[in-house]
Amino acid sequence: MKKQLISILTLFLLVVIGCSENNAVDKSKIKWEEKIETAIKIAKEENKAILVNFTGSDWCVWCKKLDGEVFSQAEFAEYANNNLILVKLDFPRSIQQSSETKQYNNSLAQKYGIRGFPTILIFDKNGNPVAQTGYQPGGAANYVNHIKSILQNKS
Predict the structure, then answer these.
(1) Mean pLDDT of 38-62
(2) pLDDT in the model for residue 25
(3) Whole-model pTM?
(4) Angle between the 74-83 and 139-154 helix axes, to the nearest 10 degrees?
C-alpha cells in the first residue's frame, strides 16, 4: 500500500512539474540583429529604441546569467518585441566567427569603449547613445523596468 501511494504521489509530482508554466521563451521568438546599421534602419521605421548587447556568450558568466535570467524570458521577449530592436555583438572564445564579423564587432567595441562583458548600450531610434548598463539582478521583470526607466529619463 505504501509503495502504491508513493508511486502515485511521485507520478502526480512529475505531472505537476511537467505541466508547470515555464517562462523561458523559444529563441526564435526574439530576433537579434548582428549590425547596428540594420537596427537603426528598422528602429526608425518602427519608432523603437535599440538595445545592443556586447557579450562573450560562450565564456562570460555574467553574460550567461543575463541571457538566462532576462533575454530568454517571455516577459523580456514581449517587451522587446514591442519596444526595442535588439543587436547582439558576440565575442566568443570557442564559437567560430568570420573574420569580417570579428572585425566589425571589435571596431564597435573600440568605438564605444567597451571594457567588459556584458555591456548593454541603449540607443534612440536614430542611433544616438542614450545609456550604458549591464547585468542587473532581479530577472526579466526588473530588467524591463530598468530599460523603461532609462528610456523615460532620456525623453
Answers:
(1) 98
(2) 62
(3) 0.83
(4) 20
